[in-house]
Known about the structure:
Shape: elongated
Bound molecules: phenylalanine
Number of strands: 14
Radius of gyration: 20 Å
Strand content: 15-25%
Structural class: alpha/beta
Amino acid sequence: VAQPAAGGGTPSDANTILLGEVGSLTGAQATFGVSTRNGIELALKEANAAGGVKGKKLAVRVYDDQGKPEEAAQAVTRLITQDKVVLILGEVASSNSLAMAEKSQAAGVPMITPSSTNPSVTQKGDYIFRVCFIDPFQGFVMAKFARENLKAGQVAVLQDNKSAYSIGLKDVFTQKFAEMGGKIVATESYSQGDTDFRSQLTTIKKTKPQAIYVPGYYNDVGIIARQARELGLTVPLMGGDGWDSEKLFELAGNTLDGSYFSNHYSPDNPDPKVQKFISDYKAAYGGVPDALAALGYDAAKVAIAALERAKDLSGPSVRDAIAQTKDFPGVAGTISLDENRNAVKSAAILKIANGKTEFVTTINP
Ligand code: PHE
């Protein structure tokens, strides 16, 4: 059963507005939950230092779902029935957000996912929002990059068949790459948490791809990269936002040098508001914020601005206020929510060199 993480807030009362958060603070994708929590915490601290919202302080109750959809769903039920939060922030992994969205929508409690990109998440209903782009765009971006910049004609795909995110991204990439005149020469699958990918990689190698698309999470991708190189597959790997973690390089060493992935944000962005966020984050948590931290921060800021605008703190009022978000200056791009409650934003392509990411280009919708 999901337990409140240390430092949870006090219930909403005359002086406090309580928000809920669900994330993978432990488990295979723990950096996702920890970075997101830090970003959210930073935004709340800033808002409280500036006087709070509607004359009240903001607090957040955080539950750890260990990266599991069932735990994420239970945590939402608790946030709604016991903690009586006014809105919910989370999750990162689309499979977890899908499980949460079902419950939030049914209860009429608004939910904002910072970073889940699978289109079906916000299709769960009119209380479910996101501050990031969606995978039909992200998949297109990498297909275009593979064709136009890498000049790849033949690409293989290795997907995680336990992840709504991975399957969705594979589908779009495959379709777009073919429409652009490329050929998918192999499609292989694994299940998240697997540790031996050699048989899939051996099959892929025989088809002589010029690049391999691996739309998975960093904990698996790091091992996949290492095993691909051991088998003599030297072509670039390509991926999506799920690669974004410091831990990727701990696992992969330098085996991802020359590979590329799409992401929401680059810390190289010279925009003063981005650089201020980075230095505040470093001072508080030590380390450069990743995209999850940036999107967690943005999701909380959007929530805070909506709470301030809302005519009261009821579900429908807060939902209506979030839906009106327009030209909001986030650190991971400007946020305008469309009629499907998705943000329409540009994507960054990052290149890996010397075990680090480098900004390559931005692609606009
Ligand atoms: N977009 C991923 C998903 O929907 C989550 C993710 C976002 C991972 C950003 C890393 C960085 O599952």
